Structure formats: C-alpha cells, structure tokens
Amino acid sequence: MQLFKERNGVYYVTHQQHGRQIRRSLKTKSKHIAKQRLAKYELEFHEAQLFGREPERGFRQLMETYLEARKNTRGFQRLQSGVKPLLAFFGNSELSAITPAEVERYVAWRSGKVKDGTIKRETGILMAAFNHAIKKHGWKVANPCTSADLPSDPRGRVRYLTHPEASRLIQAARHPIMTGGRPLGVFNKSPVLADFIELALNTGCRKQELLGLKWSDVDLSTRLLRLAHTKAGRWQTVPINEEARKVILRRMRRRNEVCPESPYVFFHEVQRGNARKGGRVHDLKKSFKAACKQAEISDFRIHDLRHTFASWLVMEGVSLFKVSKLLRHETVAMTERYAHLSPDHLHDAIERVNFSAENQRSPNVEAMRSTKRLVI
Known about the structure:
The chain is mainly alpha-helical. It has helices at 31-51, 59-70, 76-90, 100-110, 116-137, 163-174, 193-203, 207-211, 242-258, 285-294, 304-315, 320-327, 344-351, 363-375, and strands spanning 2-5, 11-17, 20-25, 218-219, 224-227, 236-239. Strands 1-2-3 form a three-stranded antiparallel β-sheet, with helices on one face. A hairpin with a 2-residue loop joins strand 2 and strand 3 (20-25). The protein is globular and about 75 Å long.
C-alpha cells in the first residue's frame, strides 16, 4: 500500500485488489494522522484476507467500481452526470454510514432543486451501484435504498402538437428569423432541422436514432429504416410512409449537391468549429428551441415529436397494440399513456353490453305469470 497526497492536501492510500487499483481517502491533511490511519487500514485489510472479515469500504470506491463496469455501455455520459450529485452529498462516507435515513436525507437535499424524476434516476443509480457490488463482487454490505422512502415513479409526460402547430414549427425551422424579423444567415441556421422534425413526426423515432441514421441503413425498396442507435441497444427497423420517403429523397438530393461522400442522412453542410463538413449532426437543441419560440409553441421538447407521432395515431383510431409496435415498446403497458386520447374505444366497448331490465324478461318469470292468471 502506498500513501499519496492530493492537490488539496488530503492524503489517500492506493493498493491493488483482485487486479484493480483501489484508491481511498484518509480524510486528513496531517501526514502523522495519515500514517496512523494507513496502519489501521492495512490491519483491516490483512484481517480480511486472513480471517474473511469484510473490510470497510468508501462511497467513492463503490462509485468507481460501478462506473468502471459501465464505461462501455450506452448512456455512460448521462450516468456520470447522475453520479456527480451523489458524490457531492455522500463524498468520502464509509458504506456502513450510508443508511436508509441517509438516503432519505439525500432525497430531501435534492428536493426543490430538481424534479422527482431526476431524484428517482439518481437514487436508481445508487441502488444499482450497491446491487452491482453485492452481486458481482461479493461485497457484504446492505443496500440502503431498498428500505428508504424514495419518490414514486413520475407520470409519463404526453405533450403533443396539433397539425397546425406542427406546420408552423416546420415553417419556422425552414425559415428562421432573427429578433428584428430579418432572415437568419446561412451560417447561423440549421439546414437539417425542418427535415428532421418532419421525419420524426412521420416515424416516431428518437432523436439519436435519426441523427445516427446512415444511408446504408435506408432501404427505400422495402420502405424500412434500420436503426443502430436505439434505446434497447440492439438493431431495430421501422417502416416509413410516403411523407417520410419524400423527406429521405430530399435529404438524398441535398447530399448529392453538397457532400456526396457523407454517410449520414443528417450531416453538416459546412465546416463549423470541430464539426467537419459531411460529419454527423450530434444535437439540434438550440435551433429547435429557437424554432419553437418563433412558432409560438411553449413547453415542447424534441422528444415530444415522438409523443406527437403516437398521439396522432391513437386519435386516428389505431390500436394501442399497433402503436406499441411502431414505437418499439417492449410491452403495451408502456403505450397506455396515450389511451386517454382515444375515448371512443371505451364508449364502443360499453355499448356492446347494452343491457336493460325492461327489455329482457326471463322465460320462467313469464311462465309463472301465465300460471297465476290461469289459477285466478
């Protein structure tokens, strides 16, 4: 084991364990105290090796272990973002000190700063990190999240456009203007935004699925798009309608005019900073927000284009099962958030019962009535 000093003056110890480099803060700037704590840590470590006693582990070690295991997975950048507030709160705590009550204190600390959905995601990371250490590495620690009072799952958000709003949004994306009303310069507007919006509204694809779409994944003969960058992490296909096909053809003509060698459907038409001509467009957040403002559409995000696609289908009478397949949901339950947009399906179902006591008489009752009349 080796002793080191961090830039802020705090000492830490590092050593190898099961082929991994373990780093642990000693929580002191005093070299004398650091040596004492190092000796105690070495004793605990050797006791664990000899007698099977569980060594004390820190929260940072837990997070480092979990992040290392997830570094090559989809969404790793977002995972790192979710870990930051956890590290800010739990810091150098020992795992034994992180009780259900401490997790609830974290929830209270984050409340008011972020939405419940964000807190739910962060505590989900914490729970997953503990489960990973317990199941994959055999750590004998308790998962405090299982007994903590955590925020409930947020209700699914359904924000969709009307057809006139969608037309205004595409028009604003195609012809953006500045605050004074003058057209935006060619170097300041997004030349792909209008086509992106129209393709998203006609396919229900997610943002990164479309931005990562390559020409090799477009099959106009079968009218299918083959998606690589899916949430499920596996290849999926989606059908395209006539309007989507027109967008694809428009993108193809633009590629042939500007950058024939580009492999991407949505590509940069000019060199911009680190973005090379013909390279993939990674985000449209800024231009999309400006288009929404110009079209006077509030509280609308890029992902809501997917909600709009699903909502329009349901309102046209398409079954939730078919909508689920088009959205590539694993279960129909995930699609039920759109059920309220088709109230007629409940009316149609209830009309099939249509029972009335006045119109329905039992044969036995009629026979009894006839018998009574005869007796009298």
